[in-house]
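Posting for a labmate who doesn't have an account.
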Amino acid sequence: MIYRLQDAAASFLNHRAAGFAEVEANEYPYFNFIPSVEGAAIPGGATASWEGLCFQNSTASAAVNPANSSQIILTFQLSQPKSLLCSDFYLLGTVSGLQLKSFFLHGTHTVVFSLPSGATEAEVWDIMNKGVRIFQFQGGAVQTVSDLLSTLLLFGSEATQGVPQWVSDVNLDFLAKYAGVNMTPRATPSVTIDEDSVQSGDFFGIIRLDGLDPVLAWAMGSTTGHTTVALRDADGELYIAESTVKDSYWPTDGIQKTPFKQWILQARAAGYQVVHAPLDKEIAASFNTTAAWNLFNQLEGVEYGYRNMLWGWVDTLKDNYPCLPPDYTRCLQWEHLEVLFGVADHLLPFFTNLMITPAWNLRLNTTGLNVSEILYYAAQQGIDPQSIPTMVELDSYDYQTTRYNDSVVSKSMVCCVFVCNMWKAGGVFDGIGRDLNCAELTNWDDYSLKIFDSVTARPPQCVAADPNNALCQLEGEYTLVLNNYNSKAPYAHIAERCPSEAPNYNKPANC
């Protein structure tokens, strides 16, 4: 099945998709299907205007259909085509629905946009006050499908235990072009270290070249997609503790611990690249392993932190959303999210109930509201809806989640948040009064903290395998270097207002 997908994808990428005209070669196809935001047509409001990729002079206005108040009539005026054969391809959307539209001819075009049967007060408010959002694709329908398929190739190993070489190659290409991360082949894929050299609180940074990890790394400005922490029990046995998900390459779900020797074998089989970052010796000597274990025992078996996975990362109104090469001027924007999440409420309510609305309801002190209701409520309270994701994710927040598949109220932690909380329990942040919200830290924030050993020399086998890496890489076919490693002293409320925009990922000193 995977190889048939690979062959079909190669056909598209070579621009030979049966039944279609050739598509334009694109050096940056990944996520190129994301349309640009051109404006909104608001009933009774001002005319939206923009320069289309084909029609240089493009406008749209909206009015309520006098014969049917549940219909909005959009009037497009298109002129000055750049060629006789060009066209523009659009996605029109509100929080309650989407419509695709291609325009091939200049002149006036009318589009009817209907509210769904039984539209809520929030959905009516959205279309009447925010209008029909106009998103323009960067190519025609065939080009858009080709770019979508190229992106899906990144995730070609989600159903396999290891990572096929062709999937690694696509992901390496993505990381180099989109995040500026160049991972080179290693001559020695596995390096063994003395297990006794690993201490409680030590960090292990990981990336699997499977689409998900590289995309998360690109969004965060990180070079890892997963993080774990070492813990030794009272008998001295070493474990790797983490928050992760059961899938084709990992056997256990949720917050868990695995004996180190077993974990390394699982990591190797999964196709992980793994680096070991030892804690600073003074910090390690004072690390309260008992307190860390006490917290772990409270959390073991709790489901992965889907419920706030995105919202510790988004700190700003627009400077956290990923931007696309080559010029990085086209970015994911709030308009994409409000429409996407609103429509997902209708089509994929499980998704929004898992990853969107729990955190947003907590921020507004509301209960049980869906996406469109939350946005409507915020506007009625004088709160800019796009500021909701930027509100600080507090460590005090509890979520309705599961523990060993039973419903519980507990903390929600993704991998990096879990690692930070283990450090917090162990006393790593006592110097700043523990006055930080671990739920706000990303992978990059974890390993950029200046809490690691910068004095002790790496074991000689690590140096021989990776002469130019500051850390010992235990596993992986490709080099994993942690950017900005061990560079930022912890301080109160760290990481609560940090941008994370490619390609430079510039961060102010006080973020």
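Reply:
Got it, the structure tokens are right above this. DSSP finds 15 helices and 18 strands in the chain.
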